[in-house]
Amino acid sequence: MIIVLKPGCTDAQLTHICEKLEEMGFRHEVSRGIKRTLVGVIGEEDQLRNAPLKAIPGVEEVMSVLKPFKLASREFHEEPSVIDLGHGVKVGGGYLMMIAGPCAIEGEELLHEIGTKVKAAGANVLRGGAFKPRTSPYSFQGMGEEGLQILRRVGDELQMPVVTEVMDPRQVELVNEYTDIFQIGARNMQNFNLLNEVGQTNRPVLLKRGMSATIQDLLMSAEYILSNGNMKVILCERGIRSFDSSTRNLLDLAAVPNLQGLSHLPVVVDPSHATGRPDLIPPMALASVAAGADGVHIEVHSCPEKATSDGAQALLPEQYAEVAQQMAALAKLLNKTIPAAGSAS
Amino acid sequence: MIIVLKPGCTDAQLTHICEKLEEMGFRHEVSRGIKRTLVGVIGEEDQLRNAPLKAIPGVEEVMSVLKPFKLASREFHEEPSVIDLGHGVKVGGGYLMMIAGPCAIEGEELLHEIGTKVKAAGANVLRGGAFKPRTSPYSFQGMGEEGLQILRRVGDELQMPVVTEVMDPRQVELVNEYTDIFQIGARNMQNFNLLNEVGQTNRPVLLKRGMSATIQDLLMSAEYILSNGNMKVILCERGIRSFDSSTRNLLDLAAVPNLQGLSHLPVVVDPSHATGRPDLIPPMALASVAAGADGVHIEVHSCPEKATSDGAQALLPEQYAEVAQQMAALAKLLNKTIPAAGSAS
Amino acid sequence: MIIVLKPGCTDAQLTHICEKLEEMGFRHEVSRGIKRTLVGVIGEEDQLRNAPLKAIPGVEEVMSVLKPFKLASREFHEEPSVIDLGHGVKVGGGYLMMIAGPCAIEGEELLHEIGTKVKAAGANVLRGGAFKPRTSPYSFQGMGEEGLQILRRVGDELQMPVVTEVMDPRQVELVNEYTDIFQIGARNMQNFNLLNEVGQTNRPVLLKRGMSATIQDLLMSAEYILSNGNMKVILCERGIRSFDSSTRNLLDLAAVPNLQGLSHLPVVVDPSHATGRPDLIPPMALASVAAGADGVHIEVHSCPEKATSDGAQALLPEQYAEVAQQMAALAKLLNKTIPAAGSAS
Amino acid sequence: MIIVLKPGCTDAQLTHICEKLEEMGFRHEVSRGIKRTLVGVIGEEDQLRNAPLKAIPGVEEVMSVLKPFKLASREFHEEPSVIDLGHGVKVGGGYLMMIAGPCAIEGEELLHEIGTKVKAAGANVLRGGAFKPRTSPYSFQGMGEEGLQILRRVGDELQMPVVTEVMDPRQVELVNEYTDIFQIGARNMQNFNLLNEVGQTNRPVLLKRGMSATIQDLLMSAEYILSNGNMKVILCERGIRSFDSSTRNLLDLAAVPNLQGLSHLPVVVDPSHATGRPDLIPPMALASVAAGADGVHIEVHSCPEKATSDGAQALLPEQYAEVAQQMAALAKLLNKTIPAAGSAS
């Protein structure tokens, strides 16, 4: 931690700053430059970070040298984490997770039909929402527990691990009975009590980046889960807010290698929510694999014009099959493995 | 709702679109322009909004004519809402709410000292956090119920209504026992289950705008609370994410008249979180009043360098007194009233 | 300047870094912390800034301690600059500039009519565009030199200083013959050759903030003009890009005190381009004065539905008169002076 | 064009609107919905767009049905444009442009060395800046004409087409003598006079997206060049402004298929300026090719720590060779061709 003093900082102020630091148990070194005096502070940055040093008179700026996340960092865990998702599927360290399925669960027959098709196309994780966070209170809010039961049955029949969103700490226990992977949606990325709650389970968590979350914010939210003891966190880039309205959000694909450089956690990409446009999903899915993503999440619906949620952004099963084949070819070129679901237990 | 057809949309596709609309019970009118054909759809926009019209082949774009919020709109309630906060304080329709207090509750004596000073300076609502949403799991998370008890006692002693944040649907019942006003923080603006929960109480809710929420998103979140029967929603602009890091967030002051034009709900401004800089808070507080805000929310701490949370952005009580006096002069010029707390019951 | 070393930085790399610094003539101090080693570099930051220190192996980050602008800074010139605009009008240091007029000059009679009305309402600078930067090549591009002649004649008749945009270094000489103040538009804020050109005149320059310019970017662009010898720069906040499309741009009003804290240059606000909405212009104009702005720039047109450019965002002369009166009352409350144009020569 | 009327729009206002439209020569159709009345306007949208319809009393909103760009659109030119760059290199329609070279030209020997290496690695266009737009007036501004001469000589010797930036309309004639391709930098994307000037030459133009330019803004700037008669425009995505400071800009890779869907012009990507980080450039270069880009632009320097400009973001020649080989493998998989420079004249 480095403290930059204001140009006119008095000796009395400097003495006060040094006393404060000593009081808190930190070593410090004063360094006088041509235009500014600096105080280097040596000690645990976490403790320093919580101290309101900037409020002390004479201080112009406080600059952090270390990142605030620890368990999520490469310094804590050098090698990429590989997370077991069940049914023979793994993610991270060269294994790709291919998530596909409808936005919302709308019925067993339909989910089974979509699931069968996406599995045949190469998907290895089935998705479907039972609790839907909708911008409007007047929109369809999901089938709830009935949806969870359908998802579980279809996953078992198809021998695919399933992922579904949990929106409320009170739902964690219930959802935990049915799902293989929790999804935390973008709007809940900083719902810290929910993060604590899934952190106390032993289940993989797909943590979506919030619409205005920085790379560091996302890793700090992962840190909430990790610090509760659950090390199975999968990060998901799904687009952030921007000034251009021609796509739903702005896909930040550089977040993939950026996160992978800072953290050992797997990083998957959701081009469906990021772009909201079926014409852009296939090229962005390929680009995700090329960028080194550990997985791709795509919404698929066999009749988008009848979907209860986000139909306009779903691919048809045959469109998914095409892009999945291209992703497989690309994965092969890059020496990545796409585990087949159901190939092991 | 207007459907714009793609340039090459076939007659069969157009017929299919019209059949879909009839099936859903909507009237429609086809209008052929020079380069594009349009279909005007007449019916309840809410139902239309939920129909995935964009997924139908041949559709280029779907344009909404109406806003999706209703209970929050001026069309539903023409006059500005005036909300009673207790202890003689009201907000909206010419009454200003002057919220002041520390970021986090740290002890009874300190809160009492700060509360006494800000009340003397003209504040009419006391704030203080007992549950703190912190980016890092390693930061101070608040005093919890003990903090709520302190806040209640100090509020009663000073005869000021109090406001405190609720972060979790499971805390609503508890917080409801102690507070006069719920605060929903920016990170929870789209925590829909939490909105539903406070919507089922009868207590005023200070709803803070999310960091990447549009004006419409904020009103849709208010709509969640309103549609549960609680009409006492106070909107709060507190800065949004931007590319300039010289302030903590970017204060969108035009949101004040923008929201007031669309909605009858009071709109207050929080320049403390918006700027994160004590030097910018006073001018932004004055600008908020000049922009027509129904209240101003300012963090005040008598010893910022000892604060457990956000000390660097707090004003000293004497700084608050100075800006509060200027706000009062400005309010008078604009024919606004600042109710004194404790003047009535 | 502080160099943060990578965790695994070798002694050979550190030696190389230190040799590089000595070669460039800088003193340095090595400081070993618990997790990171730092190198403090003492010398002229400008020279350091241009050295690609981050490209040296072993370097994790390079942190600047000083701001890169000099002539624009408060450290260079402590007191607020007061700039003389002619016809008795000044801006800065307590004097407010009230700019009003149509977006584009469309004819002498019309400009004279608008100018007469806004002067009567209290405006002290007349604006009008002769060269118009338009997003589309198919839109009206301005009247050119004929427009300049009209502006000059009307300004002289009404005894008001005039301001008009210059878009091209080749136009500077021509525009200089007619205008009292150059305007550099938002799209040209980083047109460095144009900045150099107006920097070589002796005329005040109204420099508008670019749509994605940080506070520092704006001051660096001012620095281009100042470093050419022209110290008469007036900064203008006119809204930046954001994700909310309900206003044309996002007015960053905190930029006013933020810039005034860093720089001695006057700062004016343009709520017309910032919001693009006549209903939001008056409250934002008042808020600008309350925030401490040194002037307000408002587009006024006597028949907006016939305007050739940006008619939808213009105020009517009677609307301007109303808000100008309120701004005057507010200025009085804040002890600011609005010089009357034509009161002196 | 569709005009949405305000809820309380009077019959007199509606009549006035219809008269205005007739006066301007447009047909119109009035459509009364449940909550809003619409007026559909039939006629040339360009003329409508320039009419300030929103300023007419009673109008709530004006919605465009058509895009404002024409010559740049797929509707004007259905097939992808293929542009000849000289020395046997083409871009667009399956041909990839591989641009490499230093940020700034610093000397003939160095440029020759870098050029030789990048050509051997597969680059087919050599870049180098002679006029540098720098944020600070105190930074190196480029070698000027001497740099252009060096670039021309090295390009001729290596039989590679060359690209260099032009910043000022007054430089167009000079730069035209030396370069094969003009580059318009991000800061000048809306320097409309400069666009007009290069539009009057017959030389390919690499048009970089501005930092806050929407997809449509970029196409409108291309339209300036095209409407002057120069149809050889190559669009370049190079990152936009965002709230995350961990990369220099935010690479919007979805812009590639988004632009290609709307326009026939080739689209290349510059991951160097987009990320500003050597570790992120290779994955983003691969992702660009996978996303369907028509070319990739990468800065390469043989001694980044001595570069006069942007050294910290340059790849070493050996790093470039590695990523170029991977891009070639990927291009082959996707059936794209990378023309070798010098293979034809």
Essential attributes:
11 helices, 8-stranded parallel beta sheet, 2 domains, 345 residues, Alpha-Beta Plaits, alpha/beta, 4-stranded antiparallel beta sheet, homotetramer, 33% helix, 18% strand, TIM Barrel
Shape of chain A: elongated
Q: What is the fold named in CATH at topology level of the largest domain in chain A?
A: TIM Barrel
Gyration radius of chain A, in Å = 23 Å
CATH architecture of the largest domain in chain A: Alpha-Beta Barrel
CATH class of the largest domain in chain A: Alpha Beta
* DSSP helical segment count of chain A: 11
Which chains share the greatest interface? A-B, 47 and 47 residues
**Uncertain regions spanning at least 5 consecutive residues of chain A:** none
The number of domains of chain A is 2
Overall helicity of chain A: 25-40%
Classified in CATH, the superfamily of the largest domain in chain A is Aldolase class I
Strand count, sense and barrel status of the largest sheet of chain A are: 8 strands, parallel
Write a structural description.
4 copies of one chain form a homotetramer. Chain A is an alpha/beta fold and 345 residues long. Chain A folds into 2 domains: 2-63, 2-Layer Sandwich (Alpha-Beta Plaits), CATH 3.30.70.1140; 83-333, TIM Barrel. Chain A contains 11 helices and 14 strands. The first copy, chain A, has helices at 11-23, 45-50, 108-121, 145-158, 172-178, 192-199, 215-226, 255-262, 271-275, 281-290, 317-333, and strands at residues 2-5, 27-32, 37-42, 59-63, 83-86, 89-91, 97-101, 125-127, 162-165, 181-184, 205-208, 233-237, 267-269, 295-299. In chain A, the strands form 3 sheets. In chain A, strands 13-12-11-10-9-8-7-14 form an 8-stranded parallel sheet. The longest helix of chain A is centred in the C-terminal third of the chain and has 17 residues, at 317-333. At the C-D interface, helix 2 and helix 7 of C face helix 2 and helix 7 of D.
